């Protein structure tokens, strides 16, 4: 298990150092084993026929062994000529009969004949190791040949290649100053390589650490970029470094999250204000309704028919205002929930506009306002939700009627705009100031010059209309001038009739 306080670079460094030394140890062991194996195989193949030549060329061995003292002297003489060899004569059971070693150096009485037999029969794979008479557990490469007395096998000439004297010299050489210096140089070079690799890892992991620090700061600040003025580090999106691109994507994600977070807070603030305003708007008709109902209840017998009818009329008016307000609240909440389903159908826009104009004819005539329909595309067909389009146009026309003085004019216009139908509601009313124009789509907002009438208005109509138009991938646009009137416009996709 990693210690929880170790950072990624530290873990990587520990893994690198551990893996580095493990690989070095494995390579050293494998290299030593391979070098020793190759060396032994080469020496054994080189001296493979040594015992056979001695057995066939020397008179003491050629005709069989009779004088072991003479044979020992022969072995001693041969060892002087070849100090790296040790000579042994063993019987057919592997017992050592005589040898070239000094008294006390040989610790075995016998050796295994298996490797000797394998070599003589020619089935050996090299290097082939046999027992070392001077050790109870070591094995060494050798050369061997059978010794016959006539046709009878008398024993074996067993020659150790690289005896104890050879090993002593090799050990001294390995402990020499030159070898130690070479080993030190190699070790220093490996350490330098390890240090260079650690620096390289540091260089590659530094951007990852910076990115991790950015994430920690963002989290510790409550996932808010503006609270304590967090400065995001610059990252390059065009870089081929994956960490740079990841950092750039992280910054973009943070900005997007922060934008959404700020929008959520703004919406929450607006919702709280809207709730407070709507509570007030609901309380007013309810209080009026309660007052008149209580009056009717308490003074029912004291009121004449005229007063009773008047009070009932006022109650009905407050009920209608209350129902209108509640309907608009639910409609706005439903639109904001995002679960609206459109009932798309193909219809002629001109026909819908004439129907809506006819619906408002009584209201416009009562206020002496002209309501005209001006259509460039008389046969223009659209595919939309006719009920929601009618709802938007009705809201806009009601606003226009309320803000247009007597003898004014309201025009429903349809024109072609880049393959779409541009629908406009134009009035000659009081207009909206440029300072207030950007706020008119906010829920509950009413312009300072809003015309008052007998009906309660809570400022939700335009907010609802804007969200309805957004369902058609369009936008409700407005242009206005104080004293000259206002124009609301939106676009619908024009299609060919079936």
From TrEMBL:
The keyword Protease does not apply. Gene3D superfamilies: 1.10.287.130, 6.10.340.10, Histidine kinase-like ATPase, C-terminal domain. It is found in: Membrane. Residues 277-496 form the Histidine kinase domain. It comes from the Bacteria. Residues 202-262 form the HAMP domain. SMART domains: HATPase_c, HisKA. Its EC number is 2.7.13.3. It holds the Pfam family HATPase_c. The keyword Acetylation does not apply. GO terms for molecular function: phosphorelay sensor kinase activity. This is histidine kinase. InterPro entries: HAMP_dom, HATPase_C_sf, HATPase_dom, His_kinase_dom, HisK_dim/P_dom, HisK_dim/P_sf, Sensor_HK_Regulatory, Sig_transdc_His_kin-like_C. It catalyses: ATP + protein L-histidine = ADP + protein N-phospho-L-histidine. GO terms for cellular component: plasma membrane. Its main location: membrane. Keywords: Kinase, Membrane, Phosphoprotein, Transferase, Transmembrane, Transmembrane helix, Two-component regulatory system.
């Amino acid at each position: 298990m990693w210690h929880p306080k170790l950072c990624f670079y530290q873990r990587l460094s520990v893994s690198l150092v551990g893996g580095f030394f493990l690989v070095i140890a494995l390579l050293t062991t494998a290299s030593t084993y391979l070098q020793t194996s190759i060396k032994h195989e080469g020496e054994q193949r080189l001296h493979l026929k040594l015992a056979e030549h001695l057995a066939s060329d020397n008179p003491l061995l050629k005709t069989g062994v009779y004088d072991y003292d003479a044979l020992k002297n022969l072995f001693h003489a041969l060892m002087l000529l070849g100090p790296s060899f040790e000579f042994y004569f063993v019987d057919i059971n592997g017992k050592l009969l005589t040898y070239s070693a000094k008294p006390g150096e040989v610790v075995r009485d016998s050796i295994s004949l298996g490797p000797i037999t394998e070599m003589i029969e020619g089935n050996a794979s090299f290097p082939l190791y046999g027992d070392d008479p001077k050790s109870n557990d070591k094995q060494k490469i050798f050369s061997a040949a059978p010794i016959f007395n006539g046709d009878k096998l008398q024993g074996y000439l067993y020659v150790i290649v690289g005896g104890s004297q050879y090993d002593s010299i090799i050990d001294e050489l390995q402990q020499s100053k030159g070898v130690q210096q070479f080993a030190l140089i190699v070790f220093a070079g490996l350490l330098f390589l390890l240090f260079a690799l650690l620096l390289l890892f540091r260089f590659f992991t530094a951007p990852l650490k910076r990115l991790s620090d950015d994430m920690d700061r963002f989290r510790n600040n409550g996932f808010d970029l503006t609270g304590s003025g967090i400065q995001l580090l610059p990252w390059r999106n065009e870089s081929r470094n994956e960490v740079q691109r990841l950092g750039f994507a992280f910054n973009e994600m943070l900005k997007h999250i922060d934008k959404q977070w700020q929008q959520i807070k703004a919406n929450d603030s607006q919702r709280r204000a809207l709730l407070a305003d709507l509570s007030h708007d609901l309380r007013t008709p309810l209080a009026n309704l309660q007052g008149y109902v209580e009056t009717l209840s308490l003074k029912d017998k004291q009121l004449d028919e005229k007063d009773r009818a008047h009070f009932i009329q006022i109650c009905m008016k407050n009920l209608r205002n209350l129902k209108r307000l509640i309907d608009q609240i639910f409609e706005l909440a439903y639109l904001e929930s995002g679960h609206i389903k459109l009932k798309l159908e193909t219809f002629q826009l001109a026909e819908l506009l004439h129907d809506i104009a006819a619906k408002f004819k009584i209201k416009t005539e009562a206020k002496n306002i002209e309501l005209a329909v001006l259509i460039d595309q008389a046969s223009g067909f659209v595919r939309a939700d006719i009920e929601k389009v009618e709802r938007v146009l009705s809201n806009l026309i009601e606003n226009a009627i309320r803000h247009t003085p007597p003898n004014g004019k309201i025009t429903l216009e349809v024109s072609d705009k880049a393959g779409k139908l541009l629908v406009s509601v134009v009035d000659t009313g009081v207009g909206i100031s440029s300072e207030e124009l950007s706020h008119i789509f906010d829920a509950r907002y009413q312009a300072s010059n809003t015309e008052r009438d007998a009906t309660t208005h809570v400022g939700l109509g335009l907010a609802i209309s804007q969200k309805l138009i957004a369902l058609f991938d369009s936008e409700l646009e407005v242009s206005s001038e104080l004293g000259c009137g206002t124009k609301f416009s939106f676009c619908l996709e024009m299609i060919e009739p079936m």
